[in-house]
Structures are given as C-alpha cells and as structure tokens.
C-alpha cells in the first residue's frame, strides 16, 4: 500500500512526467521495397507542401536517415495530422545526396509515396500526397532503378 501512495504522490506532484512520455503526433511506417542490396542508408524526406518537392531536400518538413540492414520497414514518428508526400532515396554510398549522371538521370534508387509513375521526371506533390489521420499509417514505397 505504501508503494502505491509513493507512486500517487510522485505523479500528483510531477504531472509533467506523463506528458513528456506521450507521443505528440502520429507514426508513419514506411516499407521500402525493391532494394538491390543492404549497403548505404535510406533517406526519407517528408514534405507538407509542393514547394521544393522532391528536388529540394532543404525544404522538407522533416527528414530521416536509416542505416540499411535486413529491416526494410522504417518508423517515422511524432508527425501531426495533415497532408504530406514522401521522397525516399537509397543512398548507396552514404554521401547524403541522390547521385546522378551528366544528364541528370539518377544513379541511385529512389521512390515516392503512392508509387506514382515517374517516367520523364519526378511526380508532383499531388501525385505523391497522402492524408495522415489517426495514430498510424502504413505505406509501401517501391524503389525505381535506372
């Protein structure tokens, strides 16, 4: 009984404790498909508007980098509800950019939320956009290879 009293007093006197551990937003789980190997890292950029999507990573709302291994499912946490688009890059040499040849053709795999066709250039924001409502969302991104 005394242990319960101590816990109750602790929580009553320090109400910030429970607020600090509660997540402030939703989680998006991204399964990356069609990777050729496990070298490098996966970079995921979250955009909340068309400005800069997907060619200007500095304009992304958030970005994550995950070392690549056996796991192909990555958790993006603490995201408020809203409309977003993802750009995913398999940064094979871990140089923090999408390498391209002299003609601008990507030399590393890339992909987007909703898996839009990207034949003559990247898709626009609307083609890749998704709504995040609730606590979790599962997405699958198929990587494109040239």
Description:
By secondary structure, this protein is of the alpha+beta class. It has a single domain, classed as Immunoglobulin-like (Sandwich), CATH 2.60.40. It contains three helices and eight strands. It has helices at residues 2-13, 16-21, 125-128; strands at 26-33, 41-47, 62-67, 73-79, 82-91, 110-112, 130-132, 136-142. The strands form two sheets. Strands 2, 3, 5, 6 and 7 form a five-stranded antiparallel beta sheet that branches. Strands 4-1-8 form a three-stranded mixed beta sheet, with no helix packed on it. The longest helix is centred in the N-terminal third of the chain and has 12 residues, at 2-13. 22% of the residues are buried.
Main pleated sheet: 5 strands, antiparallel
Q: Helical residue percent?
A: 10-25%
Number of strands: 8
Mean pLDDT: 86
Keywords for this entry:
disordered N terminus; five-stranded antiparallel sheet; globular; Immunoglobulin-like; 146 residues; 15% helix
């Amino acid at each position: 009984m005394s242990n319960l009293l101590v816990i109750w007093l602790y929580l009553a006197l320090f109400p910030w404790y429970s607020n600090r551990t509660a997540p402030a937003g939703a989680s998006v789980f991204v399964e990356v498909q069609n990777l050729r190997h496990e070298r490098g890292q996966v970079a995921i950029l979250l955009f909340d508007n068309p400005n800069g999507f997907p060619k200007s990573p500095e304009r992304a709302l958030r970005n994550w980098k995950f070392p690549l291994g056996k796991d192909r499912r990555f958790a993006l946490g603490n995201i408020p509800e809203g409309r977003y688009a993802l750009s995913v890059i398999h940064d094979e040499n871990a140089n923090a950019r999408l390498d391209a040849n002299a003609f601008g053709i990507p030399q590393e795999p890339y992909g987007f939320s909703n898996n839009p066709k990207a034949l003559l250039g990247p898709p626009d924001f609307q083609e890749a956009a998704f709504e995040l409502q609730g606590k979790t969302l599962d997405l699958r991104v198929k990587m494109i290879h040239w």
